[in-house]
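Human: If only I could read C-alpha coordinates as easily as an amino acid sequence. Take your time, and here it is.
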Amino acid sequence: MYAFQYRKAKSVDDAVSALAADADAKVLGGGQSLVAALKLRLAQPSALVDLGTIGDLRYIKVGAAEVTIGAMTTHATVAASPELKKAIPALADLAGDIGDRQVRNMGTCGGSIANNDPAADYPAACQGLVATIITNKRRIAADDFFKGLYETALEAGEIITAVSFPIPKRAAYMKFKNPASRFALVGVFVAETSAGPRVAVTGAGPGVFRVKDMEQALARKFAPESVAAIKVPADDLNSDMHAQADYRAHLITVMAKRAVEKALK
Protein backbone atom coordinates (compact mmCIF):
# COMPACT_ATOMS: atom_id res chain seq x y z
CA MET A 1 0.00 0.00 0.00
CA TYR A 2 0.93 3.67 -0.12
CA ALA A 3 -0.38 6.89 1.40
CA PHE A 4 -3.69 8.26 0.17
CA GLN A 5 -6.60 10.29 1.51
CA TYR A 6 -9.75 8.52 2.67
CA ARG A 7 -13.16 10.16 2.78
CA LYS A 8 -16.57 8.78 3.72
CA ALA A 9 -19.16 10.35 1.47
CA LYS A 10 -22.33 11.54 3.22
CA SER A 11 -24.37 11.50 0.00
CA VAL A 12 -24.00 10.99 -3.72
CA ASP A 13 -23.66 14.76 -4.17
CA ASP A 14 -20.93 14.80 -1.53
CA ALA A 15 -19.09 12.02 -3.38
CA VAL A 16 -19.40 13.86 -6.67
CA SER A 17 -17.98 17.03 -5.07
CA ALA A 18 -15.03 15.08 -3.70
CA LEU A 19 -14.29 13.59 -7.11
CA ALA A 20 -14.56 17.00 -8.76
CA ALA A 21 -12.01 18.39 -6.30
CA ASP A 22 -9.45 15.67 -7.05
CA ALA A 23 -9.11 14.23 -10.55
CA ASP A 24 -7.03 11.30 -9.24
CA ALA A 25 -9.56 10.20 -6.61
CA LYS A 26 -11.49 6.96 -7.02
CA VAL A 27 -14.82 5.74 -5.73
CA LEU A 28 -14.78 2.86 -3.24
CA GLY A 29 -17.80 0.59 -3.50
CA GLY A 30 -17.32 -2.80 -1.86
CA GLY A 31 -13.59 -2.64 -2.50
CA GLN A 32 -13.21 -6.31 -3.38
CA SER A 33 -11.36 -5.49 -6.61
CA LEU A 34 -9.99 -2.03 -5.89
CA VAL A 35 -8.28 -2.94 -2.61
CA ALA A 36 -6.49 -5.84 -4.30
CA ALA A 37 -5.37 -3.49 -7.08
CA LEU A 38 -4.08 -1.04 -4.46
CA LYS A 39 -2.03 -3.75 -2.78
CA LEU A 40 -0.42 -4.63 -6.10
CA ARG A 41 -0.02 -0.93 -6.97
CA LEU A 42 -1.99 -1.47 -10.15
CA ALA A 43 -4.14 1.42 -8.95
CA GLN A 44 -2.65 4.44 -7.19
CA PRO A 45 -5.40 7.00 -6.55
CA SER A 46 -4.65 10.06 -4.47
CA ALA A 47 -7.87 9.55 -2.52
CA LEU A 48 -10.66 7.04 -1.96
CA VAL A 49 -14.24 8.26 -1.71
CA ASP A 50 -16.18 5.60 0.19
CA LEU A 51 -19.88 5.20 -0.66
CA GLY A 52 -20.42 2.61 2.07
CA THR A 53 -22.24 4.90 4.49
CA ILE A 54 -24.81 6.15 1.96
CA GLY A 55 -27.87 4.20 3.08
CA ASP A 56 -29.98 5.48 0.19
CA LEU A 57 -27.93 3.31 -2.19
CA ARG A 58 -28.78 0.05 -0.37
CA TYR A 59 -32.17 -1.35 -1.40
CA ILE A 60 -34.05 -3.83 -3.57
CA LYS A 61 -37.38 -2.73 -5.06
CA VAL A 62 -39.49 -5.33 -6.86
CA GLY A 63 -42.21 -3.97 -9.13
CA ALA A 64 -44.65 -5.58 -11.49
CA ALA A 65 -42.29 -5.42 -14.47
CA GLU A 66 -38.81 -4.71 -13.11
CA VAL A 67 -36.47 -5.04 -10.19
CA THR A 68 -34.31 -2.08 -9.14
CA ILE A 69 -31.24 -2.67 -6.99
CA GLY A 70 -29.35 0.13 -5.27
CA ALA A 71 -25.69 0.35 -6.20
CA MET A 72 -24.37 -0.35 -2.69
CA THR A 73 -26.53 -3.43 -2.13
CA THR A 74 -24.24 -6.34 -1.31
CA HIS A 75 -24.17 -9.62 -3.20
CA ALA A 76 -25.29 -11.39 -0.02
CA THR A 77 -28.37 -9.18 0.24
CA VAL A 78 -29.25 -9.81 -3.40
CA ALA A 79 -28.81 -13.55 -2.95
CA ALA A 80 -30.98 -13.67 0.18
CA SER A 81 -33.88 -11.47 -0.94
CA PRO A 82 -37.14 -13.51 -0.97
CA GLU A 83 -38.79 -10.99 -3.29
CA LEU A 84 -35.93 -11.15 -5.78
CA LYS A 85 -35.84 -14.95 -5.64
CA LYS A 86 -39.47 -14.91 -6.72
CA ALA A 87 -39.13 -12.21 -9.41
CA ILE A 88 -35.74 -13.11 -10.97
CA PRO A 89 -34.38 -16.26 -9.31
CA ALA A 90 -31.48 -16.38 -11.79
CA LEU A 91 -30.17 -13.05 -10.47
CA ALA A 92 -30.33 -14.22 -6.86
CA ASP A 93 -28.56 -17.46 -7.84
CA LEU A 94 -25.83 -15.50 -9.62
CA ALA A 95 -25.21 -13.28 -6.59
CA GLY A 96 -25.09 -16.26 -4.25
CA ASP A 97 -22.27 -17.86 -6.22
CA ILE A 98 -19.94 -14.85 -6.29
CA GLY A 99 -16.63 -15.33 -4.48
CA ASP A 100 -16.77 -16.51 -0.88
CA ARG A 101 -18.86 -15.37 2.09
CA GLN A 102 -16.61 -12.41 2.84
CA VAL A 103 -16.71 -11.20 -0.76
CA ARG A 104 -20.50 -11.54 -0.89
CA ASN A 105 -20.92 -9.53 2.31
CA MET A 106 -18.55 -6.73 1.23
CA GLY A 107 -18.84 -6.62 -2.56
CA THR A 108 -21.66 -4.60 -4.10
CA CYS A 109 -23.78 -4.78 -7.22
CA GLY A 110 -22.80 -1.28 -8.38
CA GLY A 111 -19.14 -1.79 -7.55
CA SER A 112 -18.95 -4.95 -9.66
CA ILE A 113 -20.66 -3.30 -12.62
CA ALA A 114 -18.54 -0.13 -12.42
CA ASN A 115 -15.31 -2.13 -12.23
CA ASN A 116 -16.30 -4.34 -15.19
CA ASP A 117 -13.83 -7.11 -14.47
CA PRO A 118 -13.80 -9.40 -17.54
CA ALA A 119 -14.59 -12.40 -15.32
CA ALA A 120 -17.27 -10.74 -13.17
CA ASP A 121 -20.81 -12.14 -13.07
CA TYR A 122 -23.06 -9.07 -12.94
CA PRO A 123 -22.15 -7.76 -16.42
CA ALA A 124 -23.56 -10.96 -17.93
CA ALA A 125 -26.78 -10.50 -15.95
CA CYS A 126 -27.02 -6.87 -17.08
CA GLN A 127 -26.73 -7.72 -20.75
CA GLY A 128 -28.78 -10.90 -20.46
CA LEU A 129 -31.67 -9.14 -18.75
CA VAL A 130 -31.55 -5.93 -20.86
CA ALA A 131 -30.75 -3.95 -17.72
CA THR A 132 -30.43 -0.19 -17.39
CA ILE A 133 -27.59 1.29 -15.36
CA ILE A 134 -28.75 4.39 -13.49
CA THR A 135 -26.22 7.04 -12.54
CA ASN A 136 -26.36 10.45 -10.89
CA LYS A 137 -26.55 11.93 -14.39
CA ARG A 138 -28.43 9.57 -16.73
CA ARG A 139 -29.70 6.09 -17.60
CA ILE A 140 -27.48 3.83 -19.73
CA ALA A 141 -28.57 0.65 -21.50
CA ALA A 142 -26.39 -2.32 -20.54
CA ASP A 143 -25.53 -2.95 -24.19
CA ASP A 144 -23.98 0.53 -24.31
CA PHE A 145 -22.39 0.50 -20.85
CA PHE A 146 -19.68 -2.17 -21.02
CA LYS A 147 -16.97 -1.00 -23.38
CA GLY A 148 -14.10 -3.45 -22.87
CA LEU A 149 -11.49 -4.60 -20.39
CA TYR A 150 -12.28 -2.67 -17.16
CA GLU A 151 -13.81 0.05 -19.32
CA THR A 152 -17.35 1.40 -19.11
CA ALA A 153 -19.39 4.34 -20.37
CA LEU A 154 -19.04 6.14 -17.04
CA GLU A 155 -17.71 9.65 -17.36
CA ALA A 156 -15.70 11.71 -14.87
CA GLY A 157 -17.78 12.46 -11.80
CA GLU A 158 -20.44 9.92 -12.76
CA ILE A 159 -21.51 7.41 -10.11
CA ILE A 160 -23.78 4.41 -10.44
CA THR A 161 -26.76 4.79 -8.09
CA ALA A 162 -28.90 1.80 -9.12
CA VAL A 163 -29.51 -0.88 -11.72
CA SER A 164 -32.92 -1.72 -13.16
CA PHE A 165 -33.56 -5.29 -14.36
CA PRO A 166 -36.73 -6.03 -16.36
CA ILE A 167 -38.36 -9.24 -15.13
CA PRO A 168 -37.89 -11.93 -17.80
CA LYS A 169 -40.22 -14.77 -18.70
CA ARG A 170 -37.42 -17.09 -17.57
CA ALA A 171 -33.67 -16.96 -17.10
CA ALA A 172 -30.70 -18.86 -15.73
CA TYR A 173 -26.98 -18.41 -15.21
CA MET A 174 -24.38 -21.16 -15.40
CA LYS A 175 -20.74 -20.65 -14.52
CA PHE A 176 -17.62 -22.76 -14.89
CA LYS A 177 -15.58 -21.16 -12.14
CA ASN A 178 -12.01 -20.99 -10.99
CA PRO A 179 -12.02 -23.18 -7.86
CA ALA A 180 -9.89 -20.71 -5.90
CA SER A 181 -11.32 -17.29 -6.77
CA ARG A 182 -14.75 -18.45 -8.01
CA PHE A 183 -14.41 -15.96 -10.85
CA ALA A 184 -15.93 -17.20 -14.08
CA LEU A 185 -13.62 -18.97 -16.50
CA VAL A 186 -16.82 -18.91 -18.52
CA GLY A 187 -20.24 -17.77 -17.36
CA VAL A 188 -23.34 -17.72 -19.55
CA PHE A 189 -26.55 -15.88 -18.69
CA VAL A 190 -29.55 -16.93 -20.78
CA ALA A 191 -32.90 -15.14 -20.61
CA GLU A 192 -36.17 -15.06 -22.49
CA THR A 193 -37.12 -11.40 -22.35
CA SER A 194 -39.72 -9.14 -23.93
CA ALA A 195 -36.99 -8.17 -26.41
CA GLY A 196 -36.40 -11.82 -27.31
CA PRO A 197 -33.88 -14.39 -26.09
CA ARG A 198 -30.55 -13.08 -24.80
CA VAL A 199 -27.28 -14.96 -24.31
CA ALA A 200 -24.54 -13.03 -22.51
CA VAL A 201 -21.06 -14.43 -21.82
CA THR A 202 -18.52 -13.38 -19.20
CA GLY A 203 -15.06 -14.70 -18.37
CA ALA A 204 -14.30 -15.92 -21.86
CA GLY A 205 -13.06 -12.73 -23.52
CA PRO A 206 -11.74 -9.25 -22.72
CA GLY A 207 -15.25 -8.23 -21.75
CA VAL A 208 -18.85 -9.37 -21.61
CA PHE A 209 -20.44 -10.13 -24.98
CA ARG A 210 -23.58 -11.59 -26.50
CA VAL A 211 -23.83 -14.61 -28.79
CA LYS A 212 -26.28 -13.57 -31.50
CA ASP A 213 -26.34 -16.97 -33.24
CA MET A 214 -27.57 -18.60 -30.04
CA GLU A 215 -30.15 -15.86 -29.51
CA GLN A 216 -31.55 -16.38 -33.00
CA ALA A 217 -31.67 -20.14 -32.49
CA LEU A 218 -33.48 -19.76 -29.16
CA ALA A 219 -35.97 -17.35 -30.77
CA ARG A 220 -36.99 -20.20 -33.06
CA LYS A 221 -37.16 -22.71 -30.21
CA PHE A 222 -36.19 -22.08 -26.61
CA ALA A 223 -34.63 -25.46 -25.91
CA PRO A 224 -31.16 -26.84 -25.04
CA GLU A 225 -30.76 -28.54 -28.40
CA SER A 226 -31.09 -25.18 -30.15
CA VAL A 227 -27.68 -24.07 -28.86
CA ALA A 228 -25.97 -27.45 -28.49
CA ALA A 229 -24.30 -27.38 -31.91
CA ILE A 230 -23.45 -23.67 -32.06
CA LYS A 231 -19.73 -23.01 -31.79
CA VAL A 232 -18.23 -19.67 -30.77
CA PRO A 233 -14.95 -18.79 -32.56
CA ALA A 234 -11.95 -18.89 -30.25
CA ASP A 235 -10.03 -16.15 -32.10
CA ASP A 236 -10.88 -13.31 -29.71
CA LEU A 237 -11.17 -15.32 -26.50
CA ASN A 238 -8.76 -15.35 -23.57
CA SER A 239 -5.91 -17.82 -23.15
CA ASP A 240 -4.15 -17.97 -19.79
CA MET A 241 -2.85 -20.36 -17.16
CA HIS A 242 -6.39 -21.40 -16.29
CA ALA A 243 -7.79 -22.20 -19.74
CA GLN A 244 -6.93 -21.81 -23.41
CA ALA A 245 -9.19 -19.99 -25.85
CA ASP A 246 -10.43 -23.13 -27.59
CA TYR A 247 -11.43 -24.65 -24.24
CA ARG A 248 -13.30 -21.49 -23.28
CA ALA A 249 -15.08 -21.59 -26.65
CA HIS A 250 -16.18 -25.15 -25.91
CA LEU A 251 -17.34 -24.15 -22.43
CA ILE A 252 -19.56 -21.37 -23.81
CA THR A 253 -21.64 -23.92 -25.68
CA VAL A 254 -21.74 -26.29 -22.71
CA MET A 255 -22.73 -23.58 -20.23
CA ALA A 256 -25.32 -22.10 -22.61
CA LYS A 257 -26.98 -25.48 -23.02
CA ARG A 258 -27.03 -26.02 -19.25
CA ALA A 259 -28.41 -22.52 -18.67
CA VAL A 260 -31.30 -23.13 -21.05
CA GLU A 261 -32.01 -26.46 -19.34
CA LYS A 262 -32.03 -24.73 -15.96
CA ALA A 263 -34.24 -21.90 -17.18
CA LEU A 264 -36.87 -24.39 -18.35
CA LYS A 265 -37.14 -26.15 -14.96
Observations:
- Residues 28 and 159 are 11 Å apart (CA to CA).
- The first strand starts at residue 5 and ends at 8.
